[in-house]
Every structure is written in structure tokens, then in C-alpha cells.
Amino acid sequence: MGRTKKALGVWLLTAVGLYATSASSKPIRATEDPVKNEPALAAEDKQHWAFQPLLLPQPPPVHNEQLARNPIDRFILASQEAVGEKLFPEAPPLTLLRRLTFDLTGLPPTAEQARAYLASHATNGDAAYESIVDELLRSDRYGEAWAQHWLDLARYADTDGFEHDLERKEAWKYRDWVIRALNADIPFDEFAAMQIAGDELPGSEAIATGFLLSGPDMPDTNFQDERMHLLLNGITSTVGSTFLGMTIGCAQCHDHPYDPLSQADFYRLRACFDNIPKLKRDKQLPPSYIEASVKPRESRVAIRGDHQRPGPVIPAGFPRIANPAEIDVYPTPAGNSSGRRAALARWITQPTNVLFLRTSVNRLWLHHFGRPLVGSPNDLGKQGEKPTHPQLLDWLAAELPREKWSLKRMHKMIVMSATYRQAPVMQHDSGGKAAELYVGFPRKRLTGEQLRDAMLLVSNRLNYKMGGPGVSLPLPAEVSTTLLKKQIAITQDEAEHNRRSIYVFARRNLRYPLFDVFDRPDALVSCGRRSESTTAPQALMLLNSSFTQTMANSLAAVIASTDSEPQRIIADATWSCYSRPPTDLELSIGTEFLQKQQMLTKTFQEAVSDYCLALLNASEFSWVD
Question: For residue 510, what are the CA distances in angstroms to 145, 150, 157, 482?
Fold first, then answer.
């Protein structure tokens, strides 16, 4: 077995080396002393756009001055006008309202909110729009929506993963901290720093360091040294991709094949975290980071990434390419901690750290427009995509600290822009250069979590309770029969089943079926941008699942309980599902459907349920214009 493993390792290294050589003309470089043999940074290494100082551009002049509402629009208009394009007109009020509410809270507006906004907008115009933006940003629903984006980065789940997939009893405390922090609009530099060193920084919360320990773990392994090695590697890789937008994890076994990151760079960064108490078999990780002592242990490089081949001692430090000022780690011990993580947190979040700034605002833009300014949010390196609007990216990066690191101010700036408020692009026109130039607002499909929450809301079943342990939902029989008894335990209080998806128990080895088919990440590695597939199981899930059927029945019960006149039912259902009145054609088709369907069902309400099910399955419900 030992020979087989060794042969497999040689084969993998050879295969990776051949790929790297063919893809970049730079062979894999791994030595017996990665510190002594560390390659120097060449001048050409520093020329990549992501490593350059911020451009600090001024918003450019544009011909269509009247179209610009704020500096963002000037950058977008300048790139459009260069090729003869310009912004689309503003979207209709109700289209904008639905876009805003999903964007900022992850939920659709209620029918009452939509009607009230339409009336207010008719008399107050822009003031009504700004008022609803402020209202949504103040809502507790905001933190619940934007926390999910962050949990994707953190690899959050309520279980360990691997064979036994044991429950982490207190993992939810980190999830709740993220929601509270976002709702409180904690300055983003502090928000980031706390997750690296919340136990070491003054006035911070230790539970924030749950970010570091959110990844998969195998407590039952017989090889606890290897477990520690993998844990530290996962922390280092996730910190690198989340806060610096660099695939530093690629350098854990050898020098990075594309970017100027050496294996020594990886282990310098890893040394900042290498002070965890010795792990014990069958003992799970704590909910927050704890150090072994105020005096850090001696960190060593793992030769070729093998924990059984300890190399030279290496001090804690920062990746050289991201540290042009050559700042050293100056730890200030705090309590029982070495202070190295606090030094790292301060270095990452300094307002001159261009990778941190560019990575952060790129993610904001991604979640507002469905496409980022840099198409690879976790990789700003040489293999990542180039920015489509480099001047806008750098202007936003400089604006974040100018706005006192307030994410809510940044959100408001983006959604108040004319670029964001454009009429939607029809699907067949949404690709190519026009999409890259943001000519029209790109349509966005809802995530599985948003779909579930939207169905709960329109059916008047959504439970707004916040916080606490994850809710275990009933699973379809075809899934539950394949699981262990402890894996199919259901939360007894049925009212809890109707809580928002952010509070659904997140099992690493089994994603909730609706979330799974709609591309929820696996929580094994940091996910900067979800994939977006189109598959038959998605349609089958929405049409046939017991959850969707139940939501359709509940919606029918609400709208049919006060009126039995078909056109009134159609109007109420359309307002509930789509936040708008029905068209004449929809009234005609809907009335005909209810009349015919009533002949096939036992009761009129069953016919209404079938009509509601059709509305929940329509493209308009699962897409935002």
C-alpha cells in the first residue's frame, strides 16, 4: 500500500508538472529547502495589474451627462460611449422595487409593499426610491441575505464532513455573528479583522474567528498530525482567497506555477495560525479559534507539502508580492495568544492593501449585478480574468475607506446609480460585449435559498425568527431512506420549518435538495462565485416537490379565502408572486384555466392551487429583472 501511495504521488506531481509546463511554460518547482532556494521576485512579477497601486482615477467626462446620477455612471458611460452605446432607460418602478428587495434582503416585496411603493413613487419619484433603499438597508433581513454570500466564502456548515459528518453543536454562533455584524454595519475592515483575530483584537468578539474553523475536519482520524496539517492548510488557503483574492493554496506543495507566490510564502502565512493546541482524536474543533500559549510554536515548511517531511523553520510573515512595503510581523501578545493573527489582520485591512480593497469591492459588485468586474473573485492572479472596468474597480476600492468602510454606504451608492436602475436586458441580448459594458441590467436567477424564502413569503408562511441552532427540515423519502437515523432527525416544532433558509441546518455531506439542484456550494473550499446551471432536475423539483406543492396550497388558501371571483384571484396571486398587476392576457388565460381546471378537481380551491403552482414555476418567479 505504501508503494502504491508513493507511486500515485509521483504520478500526480508529474501530471501537474506537465500541465503547468504546457499551460504556462513554467514547470512546477519544488525543492528540499523551499526557504533557502526561494526564488527572488522579478520586476516582471510586480507588473500584473492586481499588484499595482490603485489608479486613483477621477470620474471621466461623458457626452450623455444627463444620464449620470453618480460617479459610477460616469465610468460605465465612458466605456459605453467609446463603442457607441449608452445606458438603458430606467426600469419601471415595480421592476426596480422587486430587484431592490431581492438584492438587499433576499426576499420579494409583499403585495402591500408593492402597491404602497407604486403610489408613493407616482408622487415622490426619486425620493420614494431613496426612501425604500434606506428602509431595506435598515431591515434585519439585510444581514440575513448578505450573510449567505459571506458564509459561502467561509466554507460554513453545521457538520464536519467526511464519513461521520458529525454535528458541530455551536457552529451556528458564528453564522449569527455574521448576520449581526452586517446588520450593525460594522466597518468592513473591522469585520474582516475580527474573523482573523477576534480573540486578540481589543473590543472584538472571539466567536468571529469561527471563520477560520468553518471548513471540513476529520476528528476520528488516526493521524492527528496530518489532521493539523490539513486544518492549517485550509485556513491559510481560505484567508488568501477571501481577503487577498489569491490562490495561495496552490503553493502548499511547490512554488505557485503561475503567480509570484513561493512555497515559503505559503508557510510564512500559515505560521500566523500555527499555534493551535494539539488536536485529540474524536474531539471536534471549538467554535472559535484558541491558541495553545502566548509563546508560539516553531513553524516549519513541509517539504513538497508532506507533513511527514518537516523542513526548515520559517517565521510568520506576509506574502512578498502583496507586501511591497516589506512590513514584518510585529505581534503583541494578548491573553493566552501570540498576537500573530492580530498583526496579520492589521496588515490585511490597512487602507493601502490593494488586493484586499480590490477583492472586497469586486464581491460587492458581483452580488448587485450578478457578474463581477473581475470574473474570478477568488483569483485576481495571472490565471484569473482581467477587470472589465479597471478604473471603476480602483475608484470603488479607494471609495470604501473614504466611506469609513461602511458596506451599507457602498450598497446605497451602487443601487442609487443609473447603471443599477436600468431597464432589464432581454435574455437573448444578455451576452457578449453589451453585457460586459452593462448596457441594460442583467437578469439574475434566484438561488435555491432565495426561491425557498420567496415561496414561504408569498404563501404567508415565512417565520421571521432570527438566530439559534440550525433547523432540520423533513427530507424526501428517496433521500431520507439512504441516511443514518441521526442524519434524518427533524426539528419537532413545525413553525421552525418555515424560517429563512440561512437558518436551515447545513449538513456538509447532504445539501437540502432544493439548494443542491440550484447550485449551492459544497462548503469544502471557499466559494467566491456560485456556478449557475440549468438542468432538468430544477424544473422537476419546482413542479413536483412536496414543498412547492405545500406552498402553492397555502397561497391558494390565502387568496381564495376572501374572494371566489376568478379575476380577483388572478390579480391577488399575480401581485403576491410577481409584485405587479396582471396583464389583460394573463387575466383571460387565467380565467380560462380556472374554469377548465375546476372540472378536473374536487374543489375550486384545488383548481386555484394548481394555478398558484403554475405561477411559482414560471420563469418570472425564479428570475429577477
Answer: 22, 20, 10, 11
Report how far Cα 556 is from the mean position of its chain's Cα atoms.
34
- Give the C-alpha separation, 438 to 512, whole Å: 34
Distances (CA, A) of 607 to 181, 461, 541, 566: 45, 20, 21, 11
- Amino acid (1-letter code) at residue 401: P
State the chain's mean pLDDT as an integer: 92
Kind and range of the H or E run holding 368: helix 354-369
For the chain, how many residues are written? 625
Nearest C-alpha neighbor of 327 from the set 312, 346, 313: 346
In sequence order, the 6+-apart residues with CB closer than 8 A to the CB of 40 are: none
| pLDDT band (50, 70, 90) for residue 431 | low
Mean local confidence (pLDDT), 84-104: 97
One-letter amino acid of 458: V
- What is the reported pLDDT for 428? 42
Residue 34 in 3-state DSSP?
coil
Q: Which residue has the cell 434566484?
A: 446
Instruction: Confirm if 506 and 527 have CB atoms less than 8 A apart.
Output: no
Q: Tell how far CA 57 is from the center of its chain.
A: 28
**β-strands 300-302, 444-445: how paired?**
unpaired
Integer Cα distance of 187 and 204 in angstroms: 12
Give the count of alpha carbons within 13 A of 22, CB side only: 5
- Please compute the mean of the pLDDT values over residues 205-223 and round it to a whole number: 97
What are the cell numbers at 139? 431591515
Q: What is the pLDDT of residues 281-294, one digit of tens each?
A: 999 999 999 999 99
User: Residue 460: left (phi > 0), alpha (psi -120 to 50), or beta?
Assistant: left
Retrieve residue 573's grid coordinates: 396571486
Q: CA–CA separation, 467 vs 484, rounded Å?
A: 27
Of 424, 442, 419, 425, nearest to 69 by C-alpha is: 419
Helix (H, G, I), strand (E, B) or coil at 499: strand
| 276/104 Cα distance (integer angstroms) | 37
∠ CA(245), CA(249), CA(255), 5° rounding?
A: 110
Q: pLDDT tens, 552-577?
A: 999 999 998 777 899 999 999 999 99
* Cβ neighbours around 135 below 10 Å, total: 15
Share of the chain above pLDDT 70, in %: 95
566, amino acid identity: P
CA atoms within 13 A on the CB side of 376: 14
pLDDT given for residue 485 in this prediction: 75
Confirm whether pTM is higher than 0.90.
yes
Give tens-digit pLDDT for 300-315: 999 999 999 999 999 9
- For residue 15, is pLDDT > 50? no
